[in-house]
Design brief:
The structure is a homodimer of 135-residue chains. Chain A is α+β, with helices and mostly antiparallel strands and 135 residues long. Chain A has one domain (3-132): Hotdog Thioesterase (Thiol Ester Dehydrase, Chain A). Helix content of chain A is 25%, strand content 36%. Chain A is built from four helices and five strands. Chain A has helices spanning 20-30, 35-38, 40-44, 55-68, and strands at 11-17, 75-84, 93-104, 109-117, 123-133. The first copy, chain A, has a five-stranded antiparallel sheet, with helices on one face. Chain A is elongated and about 55 Å long. The N and C termini of chain A lie close together (8 Å). β2 (75-84) of chain A pairs antiparallel with β2 of chain B.
């Protein structure tokens, strides 16, 4: 989408269920082998009581919405703030939603509110993305 | 590492070369199928001139340093700010370094400066992580 087509309040989202296989694959490519994500036995001893999905894996769904939908093709990712508010459990279904919050016309830069919500409507990650449109 | 063992200025790092296979795997599990990451032909038409590694994939190496090394086991990830300063190209070797910047004793919360640098010493991602120690 061109910068001139963006409007404050526009929204887009993607939904994904994060599986054990996703978590194990992400652990390999990120090197984040925290047993909280990989070992049931270890995870039981933590405050979470069970394995959780890597925060950066869940966050990547935000990046997917930005890259694939809003603003979509040609978007340059300048920054992302993330607040991890609640754990994402294995097989949770997460909706990542992006909403245009602010437009800076001279630089073709947009600020986007970014929220990940689980299947119970609970916000698990919030944040703000800063992106630049190439057109 | 326990909170009481942390000191401002402590550092830890991890190094990883991000390959085409990493990028294709990440595209699948994140749903971020931006052709800038996957198509040589498309990437040539962009300001980058070639395919680049997903920003959130490179950032995940920061999460790995935090989870595996500093503070390490038992760390709860509360937040991460990321600034994507320069592209990471396929087969770039990235060092993610984490440095303890600030300690808040009453809540066992630490702020960490987080920097990813490429093989030429160029900073590609900077940011700040907020973490809580479980002990």
């Amino acid at each position: 989408m061109k910068f001139s087509e963006l409007k404050v309040g526009q929204k887009a989202s993607l939904v994904k269920t994060f599986t054990d296989e996703d978590v194990r694959t992400f652990a390999k490519i990120s090197l984040d082998t925290n047993p909280l994500h990989l070992s049931d036995e270890y995870a039981k001893t933590t405050i979470f009581g069970q394995r959780i999905v890597h925060g950066m894996l869940t966050s990547s769904l935000i990046s997917a919405v930005i890259a694939n939908k809003l603003p979509g093709e040609g978007t340059i990712y300048l920054g992302q703030e993330l607040r991890f508010l609640a754990p994402v459990l294995l097989n949770d279904t997460i909706t990542a939603e992006v909403e245009v919050a602010e437009l800076r016309e001279d630089k073709k830069i947009a600020k986007l509110n970014t929220v990940c919500t689980n299947q119970d409507g609970k916000q698990v990650i919030t944040g703000i993305a800063t992106v630049k449109c190439s057109q």
